[in-house]
Structure to design on (687 residues):
């Protein structure tokens, strides 16, 4: 294919490059005549690279823009500004028709195994959809290939005439995986693929994804809010907060030497299975909620909740660069990065109370 | 969703890959949401009875020439000697004329049987036209959104605000009144309510993840509208269709009653009722039989439509009174 020929020309092993991607959603005003032009800054200047064969974890709390970023990469949303490149080709402004050949190489697994399968269609036709959309196989040939994929993801190929409602959550997610896998894509965007599943089933699906990656050389963008899952599956991890990347690096680097106070707070919230160690450790409790993405805070977006906030943080936006002698692969956007062994629980923010979020919620003019 | 929930509730979910062998698969028989709906419909006695009545009416329309043959009375034939009294008035029901005769000395029984043809043809075709237009426009407005939706939604509002009878009468009189005109007029004036229902359903369905999944796979808007969304709005469409048939039949009868529908001498219930109105005191049978036919037909379709609605939406309140 022409796409493959082009791939060898593109630099190194970068499969997907996201450059300063911005996605704003206009908020509709409630009244008929007032022209209220508020926008939600869902993703606000994210730059990433995903290398061939790796898994990039994407973490952050609800509403930080992880899913929006994923849908922008998949071109399910129109992109406000910035650039998305797949195998060195700009796909930012392609039309639905122009995007179609790329969709054979990039697929998506969705969060909700109940909502992502059409309840009125049989499993065989759901998994067979990619073949018929791209005109790759019909009739018997399609059935054979569908059953092949079903077997690959651990579904009984005999069940191909059933409806999604006849399967359990875990099996449904396998159907979703099978659909994404049908065309043997290069990149699969997994949007919280295990968040809706029972813990025991989560492990099954994660292992399935890992096996498939080994077998087929897949590249994953793995979105989750469960940090232990991300640590388990990812090679590199990006931490998002309010539409921006706060920290990005090799998974062990980020988990062992977290520089951003937000990353530290997230990591300290991971449950520890041993009660003795659990009571020993310091948990960083962030107060309040994530500020509204309609009016994001100035400077560093984390400053209203940050235990280390200074006046600089309110004024200047920190760059995403290596901090405290980290390798160039590990970058963090923080003016006052956390040193190894530093206890954040002792830190007190040194900014005006009006710029901070206190227990009751948002105070002041943020 | 509703039907899907029932399915998941009645089937015990099995976990793990290859947990169910072919033997077990036979025991837990997969039933589609449609099969479940038909199952419920079959248990509904009122719907079953009305379905039988509908089938009988269809049969009557189909074998209308047999009525003419058996009685020896053609549908347009006037029996001025046997069918009219010496004063020239319609004759009451008797062995020769089971339903009596009309003001022209024609057999009411034969004409009622032939009238069923017009009613059913108009009922089915006008409804089909209405539902096709309404579904396509509703799908387009709901899924394509933006400018398309703005334009179509306003068009729906305009259509809904037009006074049906006034426009129907003027349209039918501008063109030569005929069966086709009646069907077209009924179709043009009732698609908007179907479109509004479909649009509303599509607006909620287009945000579902399976529609996003279809887009992620590269499906175009037409494929998504007709393959992914349409099956999920089919249940309300089918319910509305069965309830729309009697409305179309009454609409046709109304237009024919007003003289802008089917033209004489074609036998038609609405037109028969109109003619009988002058004679109702001296020849009540002339009025009663076509009215009864119209009443039974619309009632049967309405009760059947209710049954279909209950079957497709088991959560709707079925307790009456």
């Amino acid at each position: 294919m022409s796409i493959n020929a082009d791939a060898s020309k593109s630099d190194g092993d970068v499969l997907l490059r996201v450059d300063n991607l911005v996605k704003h959603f206009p908020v509709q005003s409630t009244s008929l005549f007032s022209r209220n032009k508020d926008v939600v800054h869902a993703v606000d200047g994210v730059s990433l690279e995903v290398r061939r064969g790796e898994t990039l974890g994407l973490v952050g709390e609800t509403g930080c823009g992880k899913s929006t970023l994923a849908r922008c990469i998949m071109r399910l949303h129109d992109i406000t500004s910035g650039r998305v490149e797949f195998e060195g080709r700009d796909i930012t402004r392609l039309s639905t028709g122009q995007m179609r050949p790329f969709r054979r190489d990039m697929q998506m697994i969705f969060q909700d195994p109940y909502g992502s399968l059409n309840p009125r269609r049989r499993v065989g036709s759901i998994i067979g959809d990619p073949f018929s959309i791209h005109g790759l196989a019909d009739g018997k040939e399609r059935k054979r290939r569908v059953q092949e994929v079903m077997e690959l993801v651990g579904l009984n190929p005999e069940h191909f005439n059933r409806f999604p409602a006849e399967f359990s959550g875990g099996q449904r997610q396998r159907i979703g995986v099978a659909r994404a896998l049908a065309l043997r894509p290069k990149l699969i965007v997994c949007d919280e693929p295990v968040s809706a599943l029972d813990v025991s089933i989560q492990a099954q699906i994660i292992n399935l994804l890992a096996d498939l990656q080994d077998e087929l050389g897949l590249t994953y963008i793995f979105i989750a809010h469960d940090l232990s899952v991300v640590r388990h599956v990812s090679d590199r991890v990006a931490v998002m907060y309010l539409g921006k990347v706060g920290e990005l690096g090799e998974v062990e680097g980020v988990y062992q030497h977290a520089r951003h106070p937000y990353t530290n707070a997230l990591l300290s919230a991971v449950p520890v299975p041993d009660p003795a160690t659990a009571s020993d450790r310091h948990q960083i409790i962030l107060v309040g909620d994530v500020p509204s993405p309609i009016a994001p805070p100035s400077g560093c977006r984390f400053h209203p909740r940050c235990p280390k906030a200074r006046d600089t943080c309110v004024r200047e936006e920190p760059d995403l660069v290596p901090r405290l002698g980290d390798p160039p692969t590990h970058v963090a956007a923080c003016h006052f990065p956390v040193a190894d062994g530093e206890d954040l629980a002792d830190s007190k923010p040194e900014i005006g109370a009006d710029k901070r979020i206190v227990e009751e919620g948002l105070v002041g003019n943020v | 969703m509703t039907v899907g929930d029932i399915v998941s509730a009645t089937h015990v979910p099995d976990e793990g890959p290859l947990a169910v062998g072919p033997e077990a698969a036979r025991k837990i028989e997969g039933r589609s949401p449609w099969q479940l709906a038909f199952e419920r419909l079959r248990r509904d006695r009122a719907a079953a009875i009305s379905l039988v009545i509908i089938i009988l009416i269809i049969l009557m329309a189909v074998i209308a020439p047999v009525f003419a043959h058996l009685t020896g009375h053609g549908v347009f034939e006037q029996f001025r000697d046997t069918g009219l009294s010496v004063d020239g008035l319609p004759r009451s029901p008797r062995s020769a004329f089971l339903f009596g005769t009309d003001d022209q000395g024609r057999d009411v029984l034969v004409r009622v049987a032939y009238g069923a043809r017009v009613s059913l043809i108009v009922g089915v075709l006008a409804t089909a036209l209405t539902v096709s237009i309404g579904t396509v426009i509703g799908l387009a407005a709901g899924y394509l959104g933006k400018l398309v939706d703005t334009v179509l939604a306003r068009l729906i509002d305009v259509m809904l605000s037009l006074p049906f009878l006034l426009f129907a009468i003027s349209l039918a009189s501008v063109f030569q009144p005929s069966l086709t005109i009646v069907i077209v007029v009924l179709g043009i004036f009732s698609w908007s309510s179907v479109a509004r229902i479909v649009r509303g359903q599509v607006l909620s369905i287009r945000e579902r993840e399976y529609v996003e999944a279809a887009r992620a796979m590269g499906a175009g808007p037409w494929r998504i509208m007709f393959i992914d969304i349409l099956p999920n709005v089919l249940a309300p469409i089918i319910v509305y269709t069965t309830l729309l048939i009697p409305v179309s039949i009454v609409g046709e009868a109304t237009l024919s009653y007003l003289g802008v529908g089917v033209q004489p001498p074609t036998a038609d219930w609405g037109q028969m009722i109109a003619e009988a109105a002058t004679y109702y005191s001296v020849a009540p049978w002339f009025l009663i039989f076509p009215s009864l036919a119209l009443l039974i037909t619309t009632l049967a379709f309405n009760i059947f439509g209710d049954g279909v609605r209950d079957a497709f939406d088991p959560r709707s309140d079925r307790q009456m009174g």
About this structure: The radius of gyration of chain A is 22 Å. The longest strand of chain A covers residues 14-27. The mean pLDDT of chain A is 84.
